[in-house]
Amino acid sequence: MRQRAGIARIAILLSISSCILVACGTASTTATNPAGPDGALSSALQKLVAIPGGPPGAIAIVQSDSRLRVVTAGVGDVRARTAIAADDTLRIASVSKAFSGAVALSLVSQGKLSVADTIGMRLPTLPAAWGSVTLAQLLQHTSGVPDYIKSPEFVAALKADPLQSLTPMQLLGFVAHEPLAFPAGARYQYSDSDNIVVGLMVEAVTGASYTAALDQHVSVPLHLAKTTLPDNVQLPEPFVRGYDIEIGKPPDDVSMVLNPVLAWASGGMLSTPTELNEFMRSYVRGELFSKATQAEQLQFVPGSSGPPGPGTNAAGLGIFRYQTGCGTVFGHTGNFPGYTLFAASSPDGRSSVVVAVNQQLNSTPVTPAFTLLREADELGVCAALGG
User: Quick one: CA torsion of 307, 308, 309, 312, rounded to 10 degrees?
Assistant: First the structure.
């Protein structure tokens, strides 16, 4: 069965971090000028879904002040031949890290956490070698905590049973025997373990589940009814089907081949393009925490070692800065088997963009489809900023 054969490829490509096969759908957009920013974005998405090895479908949400536009290309379901809709559920992968940043920084504003709190203070049962790592370093990926998804033992477990359910402590257990990769704070290195630890810190100070804290501090205040952290592999209807693509073969539906519990606070969330756009606008303009906390968040270090995004990347606390040819935006990228996303907002929260495709595309290796996707991300920034 090809779906089972594709699991090994998924395990290798995993970075919770990322038209030869199907006939292309048509684009829908409110753009009236084909030569303008929205028209350029629409053309880029059409080109992306048309190339061999590209995703079956793509969607972009672009908002400038109150003017919101939806641009789609291709299909979100290769059998039903339906385009991706703005309110369809999809896996948001590592964009979940922005949500864990939002929860943690909200608790910092309330005095329940401090960005200087260490693993040793809040989670004394975790390895003593990690004890000096601070919340700020976890959120900025300067912690040195080894990445569990790169553990050979984790990859082997994933291949053996991608639907299994492991606790956050079990996930960290794959690297608990390892020291820090470098002294805490010495440099940037993206690690999915970081946000697992952040989620556990949240639970330690709230006395409740991370899911409850996510609802209390983000989903309920922002009225994000479809934004959730599931505890199983099921997707609520209507949802965007995610695919594994091999040139010359039919798309393989991988929407539910990997349990998102295995990514938890680091990359297991669900949302919709519309709600993700609303979240990012509110998150970037600091609606969920104080201005003093936001000032601490927006201290950046170069993040060019990954994950890649449009323009030049730098990492803040639970957020990335993308400096593009059309201007600067703050946000996050994500990829998961069957899904790749980019969501960002201008610093004032007035202009925003979400780009999502139903195929995992990342920089290992860099493919023509990945290159086109990053071009589309930047064109989305340009459309949002009016450049």
Answer: 110
Give the integer Cα–Cα distance in Å for 263 and 94.
Answer: 9
Handedness of CA 206, 260, 287, 221 (dihedral sign): negative
What contacts 305, CB < 8 A, 6 or more positions away? 188, 189, 190
Provide the residue type at 157 as one letter.
A
Q: Which two tokens stand for residue 305?
A: 């070692």
CA-closest candidate to residue 368, choices 93, 49, 73: 49
Convert the pLDDT of each residue in 138-151 to its tens digit. 999 999 999 999 99
CA distance 37 to 224: 29
- Start-to-end Cα distance in the chain: 47
Structure tokens at 386: 């009016």
Give the helix ranges, DSSP H, for 64-151.
96-109, 119-122, 135-140
Which uninterrupted H or E stretch holds 334? strand 327-336
Peptide bond into 260 cis (omega under 30): no
Cα–Cα distances (Å) from 378 to 43, 70, 177, 323, 357, in that order, read: 13, 16, 41, 10, 15
- The CATH code for residues 2-385 is 3.40.710.10
The overall pTM is greater than 0.85: yes
Q: Which amino acid makes up residue 107?
A: L
- Sign for the CA dihedral angle at 80, 84, 88, 94 comes to positive
pLDDT tens column, 214-224: 999 999 999 99
The enclosing H or E element of 366 equals none
Provide CB contacts within 8 A for 294, sequence distance 6+: 105, 286
DSSP letter at 342 equals E
DSSP 372: H
- Tokens 């994500």 locate to 334
What pairing do the DSSP bridges indicate for beta strands 312-315 and 57-64? unpaired
Which of 96, 53, 56, 46 has the alpha carbon at shortest distance from 76? 56
